[in-house]
Amino acid sequence: MNYKEIITKIFNTVETENCGGQVSSYTPELANVDPNYFGVYLTTTNHFEFGIGSCHTKFSIQSVAKVLSLSLAYQILGEKIWERLGVEPSGTPFNSLVQLETDRGIPRNPFINAGALVICDILISELKNPKTDFLKFIRETANIPALDYSERIAASEKSAGFRNIALCNFIKSFGNIKNHPDEVIDFYFNLCSIEMTCEELSKTYLYLANGGHRISDKHQVLNPSQTKRVNAIMQTCGFYDESGEFSFKVGLPGKSGVGGGIIAIHPGKFSIAVWSPKLNEKGNSCKGMKLLEYLTTETKSSIF
């Protein structure tokens, strides 16, 4: 498969298309990002890699980081994790409170904000130094020692994070948040503040295409069963109330963030990161989704 030629052709096509969309205003700092950034980076399990466009520019990965927090919590707790979380698509916006009332404080899945807050609560309970230990996990998984939180973006998240604060307190009222909500929220805002390039993102998540093992040294991040399940949740829940659309058009497990980033996984083959800050009405990157749709069509690399 000539990924370089195919991705270059698709990138040049999508770059000139008017896919619409607006840069996120969800967090003030994200509204300042140049809307014309567009990058993609692919890394395969047999050590091929290729990037084009703004693939070496750092951006806020936002909710894409929820896959990493889930992975660490799953690694620590195993199947007990599902006593506090569901694995079903929400069918509602990522920051919705509606279902929590009906579901008695049990979030539908780990990727909506409510679910990610419960994951943060688990990590705070299980880790000696939560933010430090989580960052160490990411750096080791990525094999990139310089990865870090962004104080600037975390502060911006906090300044406008009233709905997430409400979510955390609401879940606390049902007893599914064990620690103080202020501590959980602080961890969550830092989680969302992490900045990576497309290259770093693609390489970091390659373990999900490699049976749960890092490519560099075969270290096991997740066991094969856990890896399968994380990919399954990405497939069904990675794009909030547009997850069905992504699965229908692209056909890969993936996760989006309101920073405009998307990570997509082809188990056994590759990890691909795409970044374009303009979002559609569901909060997902317009050009990112279009590029991945064209890619799986052109390469016949949908998992279906």
List its traits.
alpha+beta, five-stranded antiparallel sheet, globular
Explain how this protein is built.
- The chain is of the alpha+beta class.
- Helix content is about 45%, strand content about 10%.
- It is built from twelve helices and nine strands.
- The strands form three sheets. A five-stranded antiparallel β-sheet has the order 3-2-8-7-6.
- Strand 7 and strand 8 form a beta hairpin.
- The radius of gyration is 18 Å and the shape is globular.
- The model has no long low-confidence stretch (mean pLDDT about 95).
SSE inventory with pairings:
Layout: H1 3-16, E1 22-23, E2 39-44, E3 49-53, E4 59-60, H2 66-77, H3 98-102, H4 113-126, H5 130-142, H6 151-159, H7 162-173, H8 181-193, E5 195-196, H9 198-204, H10 224-237, H11 243-249, E6 254-256, E7 261-266, E8 270-275, E9 278-279, H12 286-299
Helix pairs in contact: 1-12, 2-4, 2-10, 4-7, 4-8, 6-8, 7-8
